[in-house]
Automatic annotation (TrEMBL):
Protein name: Uncharacterized protein
Source taxon at top rank: Eukaryota
One Pfam family matching this protein: SQS_PSY
Record SUPFAM superfamilies: Terpenoid synthases
Source species taxonomy: Eukaryota, Metazoa, Ecdysozoa, Arthropoda, Hexapoda
Species for this entry: Molorchus minor
Length: 126
């Protein structure tokens, strides 16, 4: 587990950080990878000033998950969360991976998200 995922989750999703610490070591790495992905996707709207840039970032993450799904390390971007997600997707079943992929296109306009609950729905529901 790279240090970036737990710190990212700790900074932006503290409640889930605490809950993830309660998991067994074998599941903790995967949970931090998925939560790190969730944070990255949920924060896109606040990190960019133009909608087109945000949509490109959403496309980046969709392509990243698809590359992880193909189990080809060379196709995965050299992003810390992406690399950790690649490592841990091998321990997930296809239904869980399909759930991640199904959520990304459903984000119609992340710039209209106003509730924390909505941001939690952007990523994978654990």
């Amino acid at each position: 587990m790279q240090q970036r995922d737990p710190e990212l989750v700790r900074t932006y999703d503290y409640e889930n950080f605490i809950c993830t610490l309660l998991l067994k070591n074998s599941a903790r790495s995967c949970a931090f990878a998925v939560r790190g992905f969730n944070v990255e996707v949920a924060r896109i709207a606040e990190q960019v000033s133009q909608e087109a840039t945000g949509l490109m970032r959403l496309q980046f993450w969709e392509d990243t998950v698809k590359a992880c799904y193909l189990h080809d390390l060379r196709a995965v971007p050299k992003h810390p969360v992406a690399m950790e997600l690649f490592k841990d997707l091998e321990s997930m079943d296809d239904r869980q991976i399909d759930g991640i992929l199904a959520e990304i296109p459903q984000i119609q306009n992340p710039w209209q998200m106003t509730f924390i609950r909505d941001e939690d729905e952007v990523g994978l529901k654990l």
